[in-house]
Write a structure and sequence with these properties.
Blueprint (H helix, E strand, L loop, with lengths): L23 E9 L5 H8 L8 E3 L18 E3 L3 E6 L4 E7 L10 H5 L4 E7 L7 H10 L3 E6 L8 H8 L7 E4 L4 H24 L7
Parallel strand pairs: 1-5, 1-6, 6-7, 7-8
Antiparallel strand pairs: 2-3, 4-5
This protein binds guanosine-5'-triphosphate and magnesium ion.
Family: Belongs to the GPN-loop GTPase family.
InterPro entries: Gliding_Motility_GTPase, Gpn, P-loop_NTPase
Organism: Streptomyces cellulosae
Length: about 210
């Protein structure tokens, strides 16, 4: 198999060194169905050259990998993607993109460990492919937001997407284009804001007295 894309240049030509005052690293994972755009998002938003573990898809995967809806895809993530984005002077997000194919799902538990929150990327042409990711995150107790990646397919109202995914009303839902750095940044900011609110709510919640 050819090792594909760790040499692929990032969107920004300049590399940003990690600031000396950055002392708070937050681990975020990008999950979702096969070919939903996870690698694309990590790649477009990372300020360092991202690590991608993509391999060329070969005939050996035929009959194993479900290529429905992703014909023409030539590479797939076989371990994880890794990138970094500085939020402010102190806070840095470390981004991990999960592999989307079922045969690599066993890696997800490891990826979730120590994760503060997750982005579920959804291709609305294949909404059902997102159920597994949402289910795993809910079971793991990892907070998440949902981002519908723009593949130019039919558009659905937020309400339709929420119903199809059976989403809790408190889970933020946004549209994005994973190829765009700005759009991907908005997704990550939405997640960070959501996490802040969750932690603020937890801090406000009355403590249960021990009897
Ligand atoms: N039109 C469009 N194409 C996109 C977008 N995001 C990703 N793609 C394309 O969709 C294909 C799959 O993207 P990947 O980033 O490899 O998807 P992935 O979720 O990492 O795939 P796996 O790791 O194999 O599960 C690539 O050819 C991308 O160029 C998007 O927002 N719009
Ligand atoms: Mg990938």
């Amino acid at each position: 198999m050819d090792s594909a894309t760790s040499e692929t240049p990032v969107a920004s030509e300049t590399r940003t060194p990690l600031g000396a005052s950055a002392d708070n690293g937050l681990k975020i994972v990008v999950v979702g169905g096969f070919g939903a755009g996870k690698t694309t998002m990590v790649r477009s938003v990372s300020e360092i050259r991202p690590l991608n573990t993509e391999e060329t898809m070969t005939q050996a995967g035929e009959g194993v990998d479900d290529l429905k809806g992703v014909r023409g895809k030539t590479a797939t993530t076989v371990a994880f993607d890794f990138g970094r984005i500085t939020l402010d002077e102190r806070n840095v997000l470390y981004l991990f993109g999960a592999p989307g194919q079922e045969r690599f799902w066993f890696l997800w538990d490891r990826l979730f460990s120590g994760t503060l929150g997750a982005v579920v990327l959804v291709d609305t042409r294949r909404i059902d492919d997102s159920w597994y990711a949402i289910d795993r995150l809910e079971r793991h107790g990892t907070p998440f937001i949902v981002a519908c990646n723009d593949f130019g397919g039919p558009t659905f109202t937020p309400q339709q997407v929420r119903e199809a995914l059976d989403l809790d009303p408190h889970v933020p839902l946004v549209n994005c284009d994973a190829r765009s750095r700005e759009s991907s940044k908005i997704v990550l900011i939405t997640l960070v804001e959501h996490l802040k609110e969750l932690y603020a709510d937890q801090a406000r919640a009355p403590r249960q007295e021990l009897v």
